[in-house]
Amino acid sequence: MHFELSEEQLMIQQAARDFAQNELKPGVIERDEHQKFPTEQVKKLGELGFLGMMVDGKYNGSGMDALSYVLVMEELSKIDASASVVVSVNNSLVCYGLESYGTEAQKEKYLKPLASGQMIGAFCLSEPEAGSDATSQQTTAEDKGDYYLLNGTKNWITNGSTAGVYLVIAQTHKELKHKGINAFIVEKGTPGFTVGPKENKLGIRGSDTHSLMFNDVKVLKENRIGEDGFGFKFAMKTLEGGRIGIAAQALGIAAGAYELALAYAQQRKSFGKPIAEHQAIAFKLADMATQIEAARMLVYKAAWLKDQGQSYTLAGSMAKLYASKVAMDVTVEAVQIHGGYGFVKEYHVERLMRDAKITQIYEGTSEIQKMVISRNILD
Ligand code: CAA
After folding, report:
1. Which among 64, 207, 275, 289 counts the fewest CB atoms within 10 Å?
2. Residue of 207, 233, 237, 371 with the most ligand 1 atoms within 8 Å of its CB, for mutation
3. Ligand 1 contacts CB of residue 19 (under 6 A)
4. Active site residue 363
5. Is position 277 within any domain?
């Protein structure tokens, strides 16, 4: 067992750190305030190869490992979790899903522009009545021979209005329950497909979250992913990797808040000395540093297992469950350490606290992660 990162991984980590400081930090408060999508920044992330990090070079990807991907997610999320969720969804849900299960023609047509960042993708599983209970899909895909007819509504879709390509999960054979579900590639602009208003959110306000409506949307059979009925397994397999990405996002949010709290505590004085020298604050910092290090080990291990070609279902869920709790706990303490300053936007920690909450909800709530973990350990 060794804990060192390779030269290449260190370089990628530094590149992401520099990008976050130079490109994401300026304007992050304003984007959050006005719910402004980081359009320019996402374009540059694509140019850096961060939108198709694990995709093979022959499909315009960067061919990096999963550990490099989590290093990038961690660094970006320290500064701007609204930008990092775009990176996470595009890499682990959309590109991974297409590269692993798409046909050659689908990869040529869709994966190449997605991996190079020419366009971004969205993953559409959640519905008004199907969030955690993902097998209860109400969106239907009626088999019409050469094509399917999609009808239904999807909710809380990341990259909802900015995506060019949507991976949509829908029910084809209701009587077969989860075995009758399919996944489809739907292009933006397909007749009958409309994007609802933007959600006004607590956190990750710069990201673009919408409901989507499908009204007799014709999708060619060649745009179905995998065999008939593969859609639910497709969603589950894809989300397994997605959960590592969100765990890394949570880790980054926690680490970003901790770094700010540490610097503030060393400079802010009360009762004649820096507040970091009061045991009340020093012990908070000690707890925060320890929790973050433990979360980091879980996240890196899950990515490492993926890189080794080993099962990472359990490790990914443990990493997400723990790192998202750490993100919540650490950001609350970071606000507390900042006192009154922590409650105002200029000091960043209140935004990180608001951003942290979603990591306990999307890509499987903490309760769902406990279901996955308990089923795995009781197997
Ligand atoms: N890999 C492969 N197959 C899997 C699997 C996995 N990880 N997990 C389950 N399956 C298969 C099972 O083997 C079973 O298939 P068979 O009948 O052929 O054996 C089938 O799927 C159904 O499994 P379960 O009986 O376990 O299903 P369940 O109804 O109990 O639910 C669940 C399982 C884990 C709770 C699942 O519903 C789930 O993960 N729910 C949460 C959904 C979620 O994460 N949503 C996030 C939305 S996406 C998002 O947030 C993206 C974004 O924009 C940021």
Report:
1. 289
2. 233
3. no
4. yes
5. yes
Whether residues 253 and 303 fall in one domain: yes
Q: Could you tell me if 83 and 107 lie in one domain?
A: yes
Question: Does residue 1 lie within any of the structural domains?
Answer: no
Residue 2 domain-assigned?
no
Q: Measured from the CA of 313, which atom of ligand 1 is nearest?
A: 7
Instruction: Judge if 372 and 245 occupy the same domain.
Output: yes
Residue 84 shares a structural domain with residue 72: yes
Does residue 370 share a domain with residue 249? yes
The per-residue pLDDT for range 213-246, each reduced to its tens digit, is 999 999 999 999 999 999 999 999 999 999 999 9
Centre of ligand 1 to C-alpha 231, Å, is: 11
**What is the percentage of the chain residues whose pLDDT exceeds 90?**
99
Do 283 and 353 fall within a single domain? yes
- CATH number of domain containing 88: 1.10.540.10
How much is the pLDDT for 254? 99
- Going by C-beta distance under 8 Å and a sequence separation of 6 or more, which residues neighbour residue 261? 284, 285, 288, 333, 334, 337, 338, 349
The tens digit of pLDDT for each residue in 97-151 reads 999 999 999 999 999 999 999 999 999 999 999 999 999 999 999 999 999 999 9
Note whether 261 and 369 are same-domain residues: yes
Task: Output the domain CATH number for residue 265.
Answer: 1.20.140.10
Looking at the structure of the chain, the number of domains it has is: 3
Active-site option among 142, 350, 363, 367: 363
Atom index in ligand 1 nearest the CA of residue 133 equals 37
In a domain, 325, yes or no: yes
Is this model's pTM higher than 0.85 or not?
yes
